[in-house]
């Protein structure tokens, strides 16, 4: 049988720089075969921008394994001669789970408890419930959409901010990005899940922090630069907001003597919402789905909007 | 109008030892009036066993505000001349939220992160997801039943243990108490939500810990004595299980030098799953419901099974 472009048999995929077994299984599960780059129509690249090889013209699609691709953009790796996909949506469910873990660790005072030894009198009055709370999700893309049902199960009301303002399923309200402040003014807590772009940089700053409440928690599972960290430190130490739970910081890693580490109303996890150790395991399913779409000539998931940088 | 026993106007309720405004509002919302104990058919008692007054025979029902009533039993306060209710079910939703917070703080390594400063290499490989995990709920009464939908939203499968084994809605499996070990052997994680009785004391011991897995977390939002804490310490320090998140300890409070405090795979919150500061606020709604049931002569919620001690 001579393969035609629409055949899975024509699905020749390079998995580089290492032939990760989870991703090899995904390729084979989609009916494709893993081949050297010289023969490939698709490159699955599990790594950063350094070392991306020169791409032959027959590579029609590069599937990157990272959620954020700022570093690829900065390194000038992307081109407009083929399709590029990132993996942001692929890890969305896990990142949403981490966002919930951080929000609950904050509001239920789990971390303040960890910093003390049975300081019941200090901890008890500060424990809050998500039932009836309004939680703003800034950037309700893949992660945000996965977070909505988790918050809903906990009895919270979700206020979603998306670029377009197109309604997010399950959210009590969705507004476009230019109405972010309106949502912050109504929110008990805020979860940042937006990409790092010139528009979102320092979205949380002295001005927007002042819109929040003394009991508010801010969770960041997106990118550190979304928060003006000096402004956050001021807000956390003056009681403007109650706390912040961060999986990302600016810079990253933070300096070992970053003053945020010393605050018991700050929760920091070391950028593990999408743990590297489980990355290819998590990516395998969505990659297989994208490979099947590729074979059928359908739109791929998580295509990079060239020029926007995400 | 002369009140008859079925009339809300006959609902004369003492709220003692202090006339808490949330509970006074609940009484009035149910159509009743707050009166001194000498005139009361119902006593709402917000406190411990010390100071419970001698009860006139016209007090038909005592509504206690605590979830566990071991101390009332030990003090000999309960009698069989009237109905006693505890408040365990009333706080179930909040306690379930706390159980989820503890489980996620453990499995997502939030607390290990808090004990270190951006120790990414140590934290990343240990981060787990609840998606696809099996979580045993030991004692799927009110708290357990509220926890099931939260775990389900996170993609976990729930294995419920109840006294009777009557199926718990949403659980993949419900078994009676005598089959607890069967469930422990299948579980990734365990949440303890059972009352403290002779049957449940040291339910988690060297033998049952050995049924669990090296990645297992044990969460206790029930009572400290359900766990043989010396056995738990051994399991935590030998890698038999991965971690434990405890809102209750044995004894309570723990000694300031309790060795559990020094472990970074232990999460301890100071018995705040049902925070005292929000107790009457949380109790108000269910109390109003019970008062309406009392007026209509219907079965009350959360009646103490006299002799069983819960």
From TrEMBL, chains A, B:
It comes from the Bacteria. Residues 101-273 form the D-isomer specific 2-hydroxyacid dehydrogenase NAD-binding domain. One of its GO terms (molecular function) is NAD binding. Pfam families: 2-Hacid_dh_C. SUPFAM superfamilies: NAD(P)-binding Rossmann-fold domains. The keyword NAD applies. Keywords: NAD, Oxidoreductase. This is Hydroxyacid dehydrogenase.
